[in-house]
Structures are given as structure tokens and as C-alpha cells.
Amino acid sequence: MWDLRAALEVFQISLGAVSCLCFLVGIQSKQAKARRRKRIPFIIVLCAMFLALLADMSVLFVSAGWMPDSSPLAAAILYMLALILQIDRLYPSSDVEKSTEPAWHAYFWSWAAMFVFDMVAIIKLALASRSPTPSLVCAGVRCCFELILLILSIRPYVQLPRIWIFHQRIRLPDDDEFPDDDERIRLPDDLENGTMGMGNSHDQEGGSSEPTEQGVLRQSVGDELNAAGGFWPWLKRFRIFLPWIWPSGALLTRLRIVAILVLQLANTGLTLVIPRLHGAFVEILAQKFAGEKSGLVWLLLLAYSAAIISSYGVYFLDDLLQNQIKLDRRRLASTSINQHLMRHEASFHLQTDSTDINMAIDNGTIACETFDFVVWEMLPQIVTVITAEIAIFSLFGLHVGLIQGAVVAVDTIFVLRSNRGQMTMYDAKITAHQETKRRREGGLKAWLTVFLCGQVDREIDDYAALLHKQTRLELKILISSFRFQLSSGIFVTAGSFFATGIAIQHGLQTGDTFGPVVMFMNYWELVQGPLKSFMKIPERLSRDLYTADRLRRLLEIKPKMQYGSAVLRPARGGIRLQNVSFSYPNASGKVESVFKDLTLSIVPGETVAFVGPSGVGKSTIFNLITRLFDPNEGSVEIDGQDIRKLQKGELIEHMAVLSQEPCIFDGTIRSNITYGRDGATDAEMHAAARMAGIHDEIMKMEKHYDTKIGESGRNLSGGQRQRVALARVFLRGALITLLDEATSAVDTGAEDCIKESVKKRDKTTLLIAHRLSSITYADRIIVFGKGEDGCGMIVEEGTHEELKERNGVYTRLWKNSTGEKNIEQIFDGGTSGMRLPNNGSIRRRGGEMR
């Protein structure tokens, strides 16, 4: 009979473990589709079962007189942990969990194991006593509750032929959820990519279904968690940071990491040895004071002191190695991030807010610091807790170990619940912080406009409102952390009190002196220390992971532009756009076509000017020629070679571009002019400056070419900035020069100087101008307008004199503007209402105009 009862007790313990295991495995597997259920009835039933279990455990302690047998105690603790896990998951800790249907299959099979658990308890109690006992009544009540739960949840699974949960594949991200190993960015080796063609991803009318780079960076983490299928699949995406954590080719860094792990193990061993030496020393010392002879007092004191000194040495050496690794990692991370961003495509930089990028970069090493926290702080503490528990179990028996194990397990559940609850809070906090920073930086950058529009007070009030919102979110997080830490602290203290009482009672029953009790207190302090630090884990992990997640998304945005292996030989400077169509998504997300079947040829050495209203695609042609973007259809050729087949860097080596808003770097005039050509001599620099009409003005400055011009050239006038940038273009001496409004900010004298410089060049030069007087010298002038379909088209072309003689569109432009008025005023929104000359010189689509 007693053998059967012992077997039933072992079986009951196994069922308690199975109920926990079923639930933990089930919540990580895919959820079967099922109707939505109200959670409140299930929570009420589970709470009633928990109260019945507490009553059963009280009866167990009372009937035993002090401490029950270890087998029923272990079974009850496992059953209690299963209930706590289920209640914790059913009662949502955040809005995300509230809107997500629980993994009901996990509950079903856990409840089934618990039902068998209580049936075994009833059989065991019936064998022990023929009369009803309180424990038998409690087990019967729990069986009824479990039967109710199974009936409520069995419908979706009644047709399952086997235990479904163990045949579910643990949820891993689908292949299309994040890049394959060969496509994923490997920092820093896999950053040798180019730029992306903006037009290629928007071939279909109505816009692209994929989110833009801006949308990816600002996406809610909660949405990512739902898309990934949970926290752990989402966490696997952070493997992109592994090259920083375990860098390839850095043998010294890897050896340091291994050394740190060895030191961590040594420190853990010393942490476990010190309490034992302390307890033994106190025990021998007590015997010494009691008059007993012992020669081990000084030996134990020496060993105890040596262990403490060794722990200090190990700690400081470990800290030194960690700091060395952090410095190397910070350098590697910053270099890799900058390399990744600088080698990205134009569409990425145009669509992404600089504030989002800067915040992601500023927090570049947080993912690595999170790894350090988990591996070098949390993991040793977990090992310390486990080994301390084993030591206490070996010294004071299974009862104390079970109580402490229950305390640690429940506290871990508290930690994980708090972590889930604070996730959405930190997501909202980071978003609010980004909005606040974006508003502040925008107001400061545009201060002059803000001031001139009389909106200073408005900017101050808007920033204060956003900051107030951010502060409220931070206060909400602080209150949540306080409630969690308070409840966890109370629970751990209560568990400490109970476990200490058991240890003292154990010492009184065995007749031990206070030495073992001191040893227990020391070991329990080793357990309590990590438990207290675990209270701050949710806040730390939520903050770090959510912050690092922005950088992870940034690194996962890969350049899509592909390059060939050809070189531009021989290079003469001929350009041809063959049946080019190009479109892009506008601000509303709708695809807007710029060109359809545009064909255009430019012979080597020719100077060609593009004129027309804004929005007809003049600057887009520049972007296509420089391959900032690729056309949706057609091709762009240089000297008969498709530029998509050229190797990376080959095309831009033969081009010099002056954009509509020239960029001036913080530095000297010399560094700005020579920026596009390393190793240029002073004579070459001076010649380029003379061509741009800026040399004489530079020489009048105190430090000449070494004059500091400040951020964005704020110490120069608008015309001076434009001419410095133009001198940079001339100094490059490129085969093809593209000038977008090169003289828009200069006076007439400087404009004449620049025109003469351009005319003397024998290089291919493309000009964009709204002031017609600045392009009369061009070999060919191409007039652009918009057709009835809204796409840009060539209206007419020829020299200045030829176009004037045709008495067409250009003639009207010239007469009405006298070379000075804005072209938009002439076109009045486009060419749809303008009668174009019907002389056979215009081909709308597919035709080439020469």
C-alpha cells in the first residue's frame, strides 16, 4: 500500500511539472484559430482554484504539525506555479495583450494535466483514509473547477487525435519576415552596397504596398511584436548585432570575452565559497569562546580573507576587460553605422527624417550593452541563485529548497509580467521623445522663418505641450515600476522570513549551533541580492531593447540598387535617355508619373539648357543621369553604355554636379573648393575660383582661402556660397557637368563671368535655369512642359536664335519675360492650355528630338 502511495506521489509531482511545461511550451507555439472568449469567467474560476489550493496547503501544514513531507509540498508548489502562470497570462498586462487572443490550446492541455493531478490526489487520499478529509474536499472542488474549464475550452480541440501541443512547431519567424542569412546586413563586411532606385519599387499605380523607410523607422514596436508572433521571435531579429558582439577577425576581442566568462565563473565560485567559510569561521569561533580547543580559527580567518581579496581582484580585472571591449565595440558600431548610412541610396536619405536617424545612431551600442547586461550581469546572478539554492538544499534539506525555489519562480513571473506591461509604455515614451526632439530641432533650424512669421510663442507652446506629454508617459512608467518593485519586494521579504524560520527550526531540531544559521543567512543573501536586482530588469530591458530596435530597423533597410562590372571606356561625354518612364510616390502615397517614353540625346561636348516650369522633370533628368534613381522603364546611356551596368563609383567619377541648393561644409574656403578633388594644387584651385568669379573676393578676406566660413557657410552671402560650390564643380574637371540654377543668386557681373567660363569648356554641360538670359549662349535649349496626362514632355528645342525665329513657345517666353520673369508665370501652371506650334518638331512619346 505504501509503495503504491509513494508511486502516486511521484506521479502527482510529474503531473504538476507537466502542467507547467505544457503551458510554457504552448504559449510559444502557433495559436490555432478559435472564437474569441471572455477572459473574466476563466480568471474567476482559476482564482477560486487558487484559494482552494491555499486551503489545501494550510491543512497540509496543520496536519503535519509543522512541516509536511517534501513530496506533497513539491506537488502543491508545482500546481500553484501552474495556476499563477495561467492567471498571469489571462489577465492582460498591456493593451497589446488585451487585444491579442490567448493561446487557448496551452491552457487546455495544462488544465487536462491538472485534472489528472487532482484525480490522483483523490485516489491517494482515499487510500489513506476512508472518511472524507479537508484535503479530499479541496481536491474534489478543484476537479469540478477543472472540469468546467475543460468543457468551456474543449470544443475547438475535441476532434484532435493526439496531444496537439507537442506536435506544434515552436514559433519561429517566417522566411519572409526578415532577411535571409545571405541577404541580411553583416556589419561591417556586408555594407559594400549601392543606392536604391526609387522608381523601381513603384511600378504599380496606386502606390507601393511596402512601407517607406520613414514608416519602417516609426512603426510601433507593438505592431512588430504582433507581426513577429510574440516577444521571442521578435527578439531573434536582434541577431543583426552579433557581428558587434562577437566580431570576426578580432581575435584579441574574442579572447577577452572568453576571459571575462572565465572570470565570471571564478567570481561565482568565490561568491559561493565565502559564505561557507564565514559560517565555518563563526562556528569554530563560537566553540573557541565556549572553551573548546581548536587550531583552525586563524587558518579559517586567513582563508576567508584570501577569498574576499581574490573576489576583489577578479572583479576589477573583469571590469577592466569589459571596459576595453566596450570601447572597441563603440568604435566598431559607430564606424559600421556611418558606413551603412553613407552608402545608402538617395531615396533613403530623402524619405527618412534626420532626427530618427540621429536618435538611432546615438543609441548605437545599446543593443550590445543589453547583451552585456544579460550575459555578464544577469547570467552570473542566475547561476549564483541556482548554486546557492543547491547549497541550501544540501545543508538544510528539501523543504527549505522548495520554499526558496517557489519564491524565486514566482518572483521571476512578476519580472516577466512587468516586462510585458512596460513594453508598450516604453514604445510610447520613445515615440513621444522623438516627436519632442523633432519639434525642438525643427524650430531651432527654422528660427528665422519662425521669427519673421511671428510664431515664436506658438513654437514654445507646442514644444511645451509635447514635453508635458512625454513627462506624463515617463511618470506612468515610474509608477508602474514602483508598484512592481514594491509588490516584488514584499513577496521576497515574506519568503525570506518564512525560509529563515524553517532554517532556525531545523537548527533547533538538529541541535546545531548558530554557525549553520549564519551560513544560511549568507546564502540567502546571495539569493536575495539577485532577486532585488531582478526588480529593475523589466525597466532596463524594455528601455534598451526598444531603443535598440530603432537602430535594428535602420540596419535592416538594405540598398537595392544593383551595379555591374563595366567601366566607362572610352569616355567622351555623350548622353542618351531612351524611352524613359519614371514615377514616384507623392506625399499622399499615390504614384505620380513624371515622364512616359521620353527620348533625348546629347552629343559629347555640347552645352544644353533645360527650361520650363517647376514640376516638369528638369531636375529629375539630372537625377536619372547621375543615377540617384533608376527609371521604371527605358535606359540612360553614357557613350552608348547603360549606366546600370557600370561598376560602383565609375559613373560619378566622370561627373560634376551643382545642385539647386549647394551644400557648404563647416570649414575653410580651401577645404570646400577642393572637396571634390583630393590633391589639387593651389594654382588649380585659384583657376577654378576665377572661373566661378569668386577669386578676387576671397583674396580680399583676411585669411584668403583659409578663411573659416562656418556651418553651412553662414559667414558668406548667398551668391558667395553658390560661387564657392561652382568653383568646386569646375575644379573637378569632370567629363559631364550638371548645373542646376548655377547663377540664381549672383549678380549680373558674376553671371557674365560664369557664362564665359562655361562657354570656354569643351566638356558636356547641362544647365537648368528659370532666368532665360543666363542660358542664351547654350548650344541647344530644350523647353519642357506638361502634357494633358500631366507628364513632362519636350515642347521644342534649338538654339536661342532658332527658337526665337520659330515664333513658338520659347518666343512667347522670351517676349513676355524679357529674359528675367519667372517661367511659371508664363506657363501659368502648365502647357495644357497653351497652343503648341504644329510644325512637326514635337513628338510626345517615343520620338527623339534633335
Automatic annotation (TrEMBL):
GO terms for molecular function: ATP binding; ATP hydrolysis activity; ATPase-coupled transmembrane transporter activity. It comes from the Eukaryota. It is found in: Membrane. The chain crosses the membrane at residues 6-28, 40-67, 103-127, 296-317, 390-416. One of its GO terms (cellular component) is vacuolar membrane. Residues 575-811 form the ABC transporter domain. Its main location: membrane. Keywords: ATP-binding, Membrane, Nucleotide-binding, Transmembrane, Transmembrane helix. Residues 182-214, 828-850 are annotated as: Disordered. It is a multi-pass membrane protein. Belongs to the ABC transporter superfamily. ABCB family. Mitochondrial peptide exporter (TC 3.A.1.212) subfamily. This is ABC transporter domain-containing protein.
